[in-house]
Fold these 2 entries.
Entry 1:
Amino acid sequence: MKIMKGWLDVTGPSTKKIAGLRTWIARGETALRAPTRKLRGSTR
C-alpha cells in the first residue's frame, strides 16, 4: 500500500475494536482543530 505524503496509515491491533478506532478519530479531530503552525524544515 502506498501512503500519501502527510497522511497517517492507521492499521494494526488498535483498529480492531470500536474503542481503538474512536481514539484515532478523536486524535485526528484534535489535530484538525489545532492552530496551523509551520514545521521546521517544511516547504509549505
Entry 2:
Amino acid sequence: MSDIFPKWTNRLPALVLAGVAVMGTAGVAGAWYYFTPKYTRVGYQPIQPVNFSHNIHVDQVGLDCRYCHNGVEKSWYSNIPSSTLCMNCHSQVLKDDPRLALVAESATTGKPIPWVQVHKVPDYVYFNHSVHVNRGISCVHCHGQINQMDEVRHAQPLSMTFCLECHRDPAQKIRGLEHVFDLNWQAPSPTAQIDEGQRLVEEWNVQKLDNCSTCHR
C-alpha cells in the first residue's frame, strides 16, 4: 500500500520548528536593535502645558542655563525651575499674557506645573549632572542645541553606546569650564578640540570610566 503523503512531509515538523526559531530570533534581534533609545526616544517632542522657548530665553534674551537650572553644578539632577523663579521676570515682562496664566497661578497657589519629562534614563542607570558639567561636558553634548529649540525635543539617543563613546575617549568632548554653558561655542578645529581636551583630561585627571559599575550600581 502506497504512502498517503509524500516522504518529504516527514520533515515538515522539523522545518516548521526551524522556521519558527529563525523568525523568533529575527524578531528578538529586530526588537533589540530598533527598540533602543536611538529609535524610540530621538525626536520625541511632547506638548507641554506651557509653551516655553529656550531659543527666546537663551539665545535672544541671553539667560544662562544656571539661572533656571540652578542645581546642575551641585546635584545629580538638573532641576526644573519653580514658577516663582519664572515670575521674577514675568511679574514685569508679559505679566498679563494669557500664555503665562498657568505659571502665575502656580506661583500663587504653589501647585506645580505638570511638565512632561523629555530626557530620562532607565532606573538602573546612575547619572550625575554635576560630575559632568564640572569636568567640561556641555549641555549640548547630551541635549543637542537646546538653546535653539522653541520646544524641547529629545536630540540624542542617551543609549549605552552613546555614553561609552565619550567615556572611552573623553578628550573629544571635554571643553574649558568657561565654555560649558556657552551653548554656541565651537572649538576652532577638530584638532584643537582634541588637543585642548587631552590637556584638560590630564590636568583634571579624568579617567576613562567604562566599567559597568560606573553607571550601573
